[in-house]
């Protein structure tokens, strides 16, 4: 079986296309269900073989700068996975005032339309 790697944007486009072509109301509603979509995205992350960040790991942002992971947690209301991290230079954030970003966004590929000259494939790379 061949693995297909999709960006988050491609995955969302696939979802939208499936919504357009599926006539069956039950399946159509399933694709609109947030819990189902979270499972689908989790499966995508698993097959895309990107390692989920862990505390103390250091990642480079595609625009430069190094960031240290404090934790990966979840939003208390939605359950969405979030990454808590800070800028090692202290310019954009600190350990006392960290950044928090959805895991999906943290793990996403660089938008090539917006940043065609970016050297990294992903927004953050270890």
Descriptive overview:
This protein starts with 7 loop residues before the first helix and ends with a strand. The chain is of the alpha+beta class. Strand 2 (66-74) and strand 3 (81-87) form a beta hairpin. The protein has helices spanning 8-21, 25-32, 34-47, 103-106; strands at residues 58-61, 66-74, 81-87, 99-102, 124-125. Helix content is 32%, strand content 21%. The chain has a 5-stranded antiparallel β-sheet with strand order 4-3-2-1-5. The longest helix is centred in the first third of the chain and has 14 residues, at 8-21. The chain has 4 helices and 5 strands. It folds into 2 domains: 8-47, no CATH class; 58-125, DUF1653-like domain (SH3 type barrels), CATH 2.30.30.
Shape: globular
**Uncertain parts:** none
Write out the CATH superfamily name of the largest domain: DUF1653-like domain
CATH topology of the largest domain, by name, is: SH3 type barrels
Number of strands: 5
Order of helices and strands: HHHEEEEHE
Highest CATH level, the class of the largest domain: Mainly Beta
Give helix % range: 25-40%
Strand order of the largest sheet: 4-3-2-1-5
Count of spatially separate domains: 2
Q: What class do helices, strands and sheet pairing give?
A: alpha+beta
Strand percentage, roughly?
15-25%
Mean pLDDT: 81
CATH architecture title of the largest domain = Roll
Distance between the termini: 28 Å
Q: From the alpha-carbon coordinates, what is the Rg to the nearest angstrom? A: 16 Å
The profile of the biggest β sheet is: 5 strands, antiparallel
Number of helices: 4
